[in-house]
Amino acid sequence: MSNRIAVVPGSFDPPTLGHLDVIRRAAGLYDEVHVLVVHNPGKEAMLPIAQRVSLLEQSIREDGFPAEHITVASWSVGLLVDYATEVGAGVLVKGIRSQVDVAYETPMAIVNRHLAGVETVFLLPDPSHALVSSSLVRQVASLGGDVSPYVPPVVSRFLDTGGRGI
Q: Which residues contact 81 (CB under 8 A, 6 or more apart)?
């Protein structure tokens, strides 16, 4: 496994500007970044996984990321560390917005290190994204509110069309 290869996992339902901030910063720290859309059995998804992958790919492309070093994929069976091991990643990168996130993520980080020797790096958000979650975006969007300040333009356009495409 390489500490120069990182996995940025998340449900990305939908992708937010905070997610892009973490991906961008991870791309600056690691030679190769795998953005991994995972199924969270504890959440009811708004968007199918394939749609989230597509929106992330388009957002990364539109934002001018070093796309040749970023792979967007999905994983719905098995452990997250199984994917990390499969691609040779030694690091998981997680965005942390608050102490609540730290409390939630810390046990998983310890277990992931124990299971596969994969370390977890926590990145603090840009203050402008610190309070925005996908759950909040879903709620605002479902009630007809403007989510454009919180999501990449491609996601905003997609949600504005009621998910009928862009």
A: 112, 115, 116, 118
